[in-house]
Amino acid sequence: MNKKPSAKKPGSQPAKKPAAVKPRSRAKASKSGSAVSGAGLPAVLNDLHPDAANPRKISDEAKRALRASLRRFGDLSGITFNRTTGELVAGHQRIEQLRAEYGDEPRLEHAADGSASLTLGGNRFAVRIVEWSRAKQRAANVAANNQRMQGAFTDDLASFLLEVEAEATEEMPGVFDDLLLADMMGDGLLAEDEKKHAEARVPEAFQVIVECEDEKQQRELYERLCKDGRTCKLLTI
Question: Region annotation Disordered: residue ranges (predicted)?
Fold first, then answer.
């Protein structure tokens, strides 16, 4: 016996198919191929892009020395303390000025990974703890302050500072004077001005004109002076 199709109830709607679930979009990938969060946080080393206007330069020899120092000692640019000797490896001047500003009693915060830090005036200062021999400590001390493996300012320094002077001074009043940036900018502008004047200056020239009786004497004198290493030009008036 065939079943009759059931009658639809008045006002009833056909069952809807469940909507397809769209996959969650992944974080936008950086140029290096790594995912970078929406806040723009770097994910890999290659995401730490340099400032194209950085007014510093470094020679190939200094680059090799810096790379060797990083390989042997790690980063020495901050405060580094040698637990073995109980002495600083790097950061002597920083610690001296922090003590002058905040006194001798601020306590260090020690993390589970062996690192430490100081929080002073709303700023956090990392303190790297190492266990080295005194020989390695002192080699690292010199490496941290070796000017031969550091960069130097380029001729663009004055322009670099001039571009940000107004905004930086508005945000941090007095910063250009406190950090001697105004002096550096002035020195840079003066050097640029002197360079322009030097390029525009006509070099001094000292000449002797000798009158000859005839072309033969002129030729003989010219050849003799050239033989003596003099710079000569033939002039017939």
Answer: 1-55
